[in-house]
Amino acid sequence: MAPVSQRVRFGDRELTVSHLDKLMYPETGTTKADVIDYYARAAAVLLPHITGRILTRVRYPHGTGDVRFFEKHAPPAVPPWLRTATVPSKTHADGVTYVVADEPAALVWLANLYTIELHTPQWQLDDTAPDSTRRPDRLVIDLDPGEGAGITECVHIAHLVRERLEADGLIAYPKTSGKNGVHLVVPISGTQPAEQVIDYAKALARSLAAAHPRLVTATMGPRNRIGKVLIDWSQNNPAKTTVAAYSLRGQPRPVISTPITWSELDAGNTGPFGPEAVLGRVATLGDLHADVTTPGPPLPVAAGR
Q: What InterPro entries would the database entry show (predicted)?
């Protein structure tokens, strides 16, 4: 059994981690020590996907299956070495100060605060423009099956989306959402305002919904999704965030939002993937989303053709 607390060192950082025997996933006996261990071991592949981006964290102080809360504001008593960034906000006159995780010790510090999920926007912090004119360097298409639909339907719709994207010179990289759906992450140039990215994603979703009305919806709400796959284009709103690649999810079991290949998606090999499976995949395959961390081409002006 892990000790209740201990001092750990990551490079020049030394910090105390506590309550290591706390059950974070009661169904599997997964403790806070296990969560910390996963994030420390996954740091090399996870950090490139979140470095330079503000973090919204989902914390489970009593483990999954109990109360959770989304946290944007950096918590009190942030250590001096941990990077933070204050971003203008329509609801907070002084802006919102976020945590920015750009080193392994930051992930451990966050996990010690019962953080399970890590979510980021599609833009980077060096973009100081107002929301509507921020310049995202990623486009995200979230395929979310409604009641009566599942992974088979998601795979079919993923290929329809992929074909549209490829026609516009864009490459989509799939990952599991860690829940029921699939995310397609597309590196883009980071030179176009968020409004243009949203318009492109919305037009693509609505075009496919019009072409395949029995299979696809671009409209939110559970009633609109029965037997269909929602193409959620709204993830590209600069005020919204998407779960990061290699982040744990707050499910009954420790499941991870995992990069996969298109051939795996076609074969229905979408997990769920746990920590050891993901770390094993990384050791064998490397980071399947490594190309997502570098800019891609610009979006075409005419969207959703």
A: LigD_pol_dom, NHEJ_LigD
What is the per-residue pLDDT for 5?
79
Longest dimension (CA), the chain: 58
Residue 76: the pLDDT is 87
pLDDT of the residue at 305:
47
Distance (Å) of CA 304 to CA 67, 163, 202, 208, 210: 40, 11, 8, 8, 11
- Please report, for the domain that includes residue 226, its CATH number: 3.30.70.3300
Indicate if 109 and 252 belong to the same structural domain.
yes
What pLDDT shows up at residue 224? 82
- Predicted local distance difference test score (pLDDT) of residue 304: 46
Q: What angle do CA 23, 24, 30 make, to 5 degrees?
A: 70
Half-sphere exposure of 212 (CA within 13 A, CB side): 19
Shortest CA distance to 126 belongs to which of 75, 51, 196, 49? Answer: 51
Q: Which residue ranges of the chain lie beneath pLDDT 70?
A: 1-3, 127-133, 302-305
Per DSSP, the three-state class of 103 is: coil
Whether residues 58 and 153 fall in one domain: no
Q: What residues contact 174, with CB distance under 8 A and at least 6 apart?
A: 158, 182, 183, 184, 185, 259, 260, 261, 262, 265
- Could you give the CA distance from residue 70 to residue 92 in angstroms, rounded to a whole number? 17
Euclidean distance between CA atoms 197 and 201, whole angstroms: 6
* 98: three-class secondary structure by DSSP: strand
